[in-house]
Amino acid sequence: MQDHAAWMRLALAEARKALNKNEVPVGAVVVYEGRVIGRGYNLIESLQDPTAHAEMLAVTAAANTLASWRLDQSILYVTLEPCMMCTGAILLARIPLIVYGAADPRYGACGSALQMADGAKLDIQARVIGGIMKEESSLLLKEFFRKLRQN
Q1: Active site amino acids
Q2: Whole-model pTM?
Q3: Each residue's pLDDT tens digit, 77-92
Q4: Which sign does the torsion angle of CA 110, 113, 119, 122 carry?
Q5: Using an 8 Å Cβ cutoff, are 138 and 100 in contact?
């Protein structure tokens, strides 16, 4: 059995890096054979790139580490439920398990707003486990948006 909370703590550390850069605090890690092979945090504002989501950066780093786009033995841990773009990339990378912290009722594509990850219409699917360390993930997001509204 996986220790999802331990890996999620690493994703939360990535999210704190985003918070320190005034980015939406989302962090992600890709785990393969018990080690982190990719990590990322939101850099959308810093890079002025709408694709610079934590998951996208972590998946790219993982593919570079393995020198393969097929991450079919990996697990993605992310502090916020992946959006449509990220879920699509995760599926295309063949990652079989997505573990997330806080649900995203506006844009979440793993069951909240949409269900892409294990939908019957696609020939690739991923299992989803949500709510791992959701309080910690939610607190970071709330802190960020509270500060944003104050400014």
Answers
A1: 55
A2: 0.96
A3: 999 999 999 999 999 9
A4: negative
A5: no
Residue 25, both tokens:
């605090």
**HEC assignment per residue over the chain:** CCCHHHHHHHHHHHHHHHHHCCCCCCEEEEEECCEEEEEEECCHHHHCCCCCCHHHHHHHHHHHHHCCCCCCCEEEEEEECCCHHHHHHHHHCCCCEEEEEECCCCCCCECCCCECCCCCCCCCCCEEECCCCHHHHHHHHHHHHHHHHHC
Q: How far from the centroid of its chain's Cα atoms is residue 12's Cα?
A: 10
CA torsion 122→65→98→51, rounded to 10°?
-70
Q: Are 102 and 141 in contact (CB under 8 A)?
A: yes
Measuring CA to CA, which residue among 58, 21, 64 is closest to residue 43?
21
Instruction: Count Cβ atoms below 10 Å from residue 45 Cβ, excluding itself.
Output: 13
CA separation (Å) from 93 to 33, 60, 74, 132? Answer: 16, 9, 10, 22
Tens digit of pLDDT for each residue in 31-68? 999 999 999 999 999 999 999 999 999 999 999 999 99
